[in-house]
Design goal:
homotetramer, about 350 residues, about 35% helix, TIM Barrel, globular
Chain lengths: ~350, ~350, ~350, ~350
């Protein structure tokens, strides 16, 4: 159960509410985000909901029986829109495009990418400065130096930055240089990291785990929300299955279902979703049809020479075509017969 | 290696070829289909391909190192089009729509479905008369009586029939009443059935196994082709994964990859691919973007009362909208920026 | 619900029972096996079970709510023992060992294998004469000629034969030469084949499908039982997962669970369960600890030269050691502290 | 390639080595652990290994082509033994038993568990004080207070403590109260945490990820080793598959394979491996046969009332029987015919 509180609820009123809930043996969690105050209640005893609804300081009460609560569409029927500032919004009719290299590599590479994005009207650039790698002997990213350089160049060009944060300690130092914190697949259930990201007022894009369920993804998002941050995007990036004809199995079913279960925007990552360059555009377009609010993909001026993920990275020509097609596909989707 | 033979190759020439191949220790399989004669050769020794190419009666030679040969795009670069007669073709620019109930249930149901399809310009009707069911106590279909009734009604209305064949013995009796034989997911590696379907001149739609790989699907198609029947369509219908938020995981990656690896048409089955009615249209449209040559879906006048699969079956209103959207999506795909 | 009938139930009594069940709208299936007569009833209405139990000709009534009925332990609490004749029994304290090559290849190979088995006290020999192969160009077995030759040699040595049957038409011709019909993983849901094997009085070992669930395996066994044949063994042979460090993932959990859910003997196939020769003994021994009633494994006088599956086939030395260890392990299991 | 250095290698000698490696364009990582100094080299150019082997200060050189190096058996053929002090060793003939509740709950519970372990000769107690939970509203553990209490009670009884660490910041505060740091399945690829655990001199038990591959597990262990800590144990705890008849699929194949690929001890976790109490003993015993160096399982004085994982937790009676059986099984394994 979610109890939405009035902004001006008094301490007395809150105490009365908590007492009432304690009486019926409900476990409560108080949540205070940038947009609202809530009490999340978990319990089993039946009671008359009006006995709470008529208390002072209460805005609304919602029964949500799912394991996740605040990220559920059951209480917040209208979709959430994540505002990045400067007129850039994601969700509810605003289709998001994010592109860039797997790893930030050099000033030249950053400039070239920004140039490509600006030309094609893409306003968010992706790129890793902290890279999770299976092997300790692989390139692990340029770190803060890379991020600061990138930031200075992107800022100038009006380009927003999305990049992966891997540990709690990095949040503070990265904060000023990042527009969207990305949580990678391997950290999708790193609950301490999620807690910490709930405590900052900056959008977070949360990737589904390598073999995470739809429900686990939503519960992970609940960690962020319940720690105070409502600005969350979910990201489908393919799951691990028995099939080895490609890298991951893009789960478009999950996109459709996430859009129904949650009010949060859903971003598709076709680059990881199939992992083979020449198929990325098809998977990207399919994701739009499945209901994605945006697409994030990998692009590099010379993919063959990329430090990482070159095999799934588009070159500029391919990227330019894909961007046009995605914009048209989004418009096509708007015009579907209902 | 595939050796295409001239139609008029003489016995002498063929013997000479086989002798030559025996000399270099290649294992050969002679294949005679409705469209051509081939010799499939498997071996390891290196040899001068010209020593065979200059023999009489040989049309062409192709190196195909995949486990599958005749269904590969490596030797037959242009896509295969399956001709159903009466101007109805599938593949290479002809987008196929097939719809109908999970099971054929009654005369009234058949008539109603045909009426719905005719109104919406769909020319192939699906429906099961032999149903593979996990439990022996479930409804297993109306059998030949149902098929004959269906045939008489469909014929009249100019509607083609696709239905599942479950065992070799059924092929002959069903032959005259069927336009496309469907091989179900559970029989995707029933090699005797595939052999037997290779011996008839009737299109076959082969579904991917519950957890079949892309390569296994192509090898199963190779069974049909190498036994004499080139009129094959492949069908992606979702795979089995750990995720339980839906019935199967629609594998759109496989659609994109099958279109590259094989010259055969690929049909998407979004009804089984997600298994939840309200998401079927999104998955269907996504499949078109991934490159499908057609879509097969389940429709019923009152899905709630269907004998089987009601939860994933569209009603007429939903079906009508989907058909329009699919046709538009196919046109949209044709106009993508390359 | 399972209603066990008295052997001497009269037509009148049976009709009365069926009428009663029809009145409460239960769907019934009559089952007649080599050991008993049953009526399987599926329905939802509540009724007083005594109103049926007091009818004439009824031996017992069991509520079984699982999707499978006759193979469930809920009605038949004591384990089933499959009798192969000549004092050879499988299940309930009789540990079964079956070994032999993947494929029957030659007279010399058969003789050598029989010799090896006799020396080691193994009384059932496995071997394929009809081989399901992913590719149509692979060796598909010696067929009936091979089986007849094998039979004549095995009979003489007192060795029983287990071999795979792939299609209904083969059952009759194989019948006299086979002691246990094996249903392979790819045919685990070939329901027509299961129906037909239910109509013969010969033991059947049913393998779990490549990605079959425990419940599906039991439902497939139910097909055989409900068509008249109670002499069934279940076989765990590894499932398909994302892991590629080995061929299949041996599912010992399934062995433990099958032993609880069903009264049928469970045989472990460690050769396919891991697919790598040097690990087969460990997996075999683990399966015994998980509760298997027997082990079937692949052995060949020169595995490197086997026509198929050589990489997972033991040589005689390895096989001899494994057999000794398995017998000891079985004894060790009997002595576990409860 | 792994280059083992002499303990007394001079700066000059090391520089000469590095120069040499730079010349042949090998990327190097210097590793200094509690037991040895190594240089890990990754490169492609061929060269004469003697040109390095004859340099001063070099103990040995090993070609290891796997993605993981230091944890591979290819260079360190004899198994690693992890010494916990006070005569307690794990690996190479010393079979490890670890047991305890899912979560540390109270003083009474700790005392009762210690009592049970002491009676049964188990010297390592498991228990969580920081609990990773899918939902933010679940019990997340007693934290440092619980750990300190536990430590004081365990110390007195001569019981060692294994408990999960979830984030880098916790390592230092937990260090004095822990004998083995456990890395949970969800953190199996939390590379920053692994890095940090490489920097302490305390044994680490690393669990395989929910859908981690054998290779990924070894690469994660490589993170710890290459950051300086050789005292690592690997833990198989079941993987995520399509099967829902139990919680996870215990992968005994992985145990057998890990023992071949790595010199590190392998611990089996049957409680998570199947997730159903009454099957835990069978899976535990199977794991021993597959080659495990130890077993960790969940036990609680009243499992029905456990704060978490009660459904897979043994009671004392079951635990006592299992411990006896495991000890016997380990002895039985030692006596297998080779």
């Amino acid at each position: 159960m979610i109890i939405q509180l009035e902004k001006g609820i008094s301490v007395d009123q809150l105490n009365k509410l908590k007492e009432k809930l304690a009486n019926i043996q409900y476990k409560t969690t108080e949540v205070k985000t940038q947009y609202g105050d809530y009490v999340i209640c978990v319990g089993k005893n039946e009671f008359d909901i009006r006995s709470i609804g008529t208390l002072g300081g209460i805005k609304d009460i919602h029964q949500v029986s799912d394991a996740y609560k605040l990220v559920s569409k059951k209480w917040k029927v209208e979709d959430t829109q994540v505002d990045l500032g400067e007129g850039l919004k994601i969700g509810t009719g605003e289709f998001a495009l994010m592109a860039g290299p797997c790893s930030i590599e050099s000033e030249e590479q950053i400039k070239s990418t920004i140039d490509h994005l600006v030309k094609n009207g893409v306003r968010v650039m992706r790129g890793g400065v902290y890279k999770p790698r299976s092997s300790p002997y692989s390139f692990r990213g340029l770190g803060m130096d890379g991020l600061k350089l990138w930031y200075s160049l992107a800022k100038e060009a009006g380009i927003k930055i999305i990049t992966e944060v891997m540990m709690t300690e990095q949040i503070e130092q990265m904060f000023d240089y990042v527009d969207i914190f990305q949580v990678g697949a391997r950290n999708s259930q790193n609950f301490n990291l999620l807690d910490a990201l709930g405590e900052v007022d900056k959008p977070v894009m949360l990737k589904r785990g390598m073999s995470g369920t739809v429900e686990e993804l939503l519960q992970s998002a609940e960690y962020i929300f319940s720690h105070g941050n409502e600005r969350i995007m979910l990201c489908e990036r393919g799951i691990r299955t028995y099939e080895k004809a490609y890298r991951n199995t893009m789960d478009i079913n999950a996109i459709a279902i996430l859009k129904e279960k949650s009010h949060l925007p859903v971003i598709a990552d076709p680059s990881h979703g199939i992992g083979v360059r020449r198929f990325v555009p098809k998977v990207a377009l399919a994701s739009v049809m499945a209901g994605a609010d945006g697409v994030i993909f990998e692009v590099h001026h010379t993919p063959e020479k990329a430090f990482s993920d070159g095999q799934q990275t588009l070159n500029y020509r391919e990227s330019t075509a894909l961007i046009k097609n995605l914009k048209n596909a989004f418009r096509f989707r708007e015009e579907l017969v209902q």
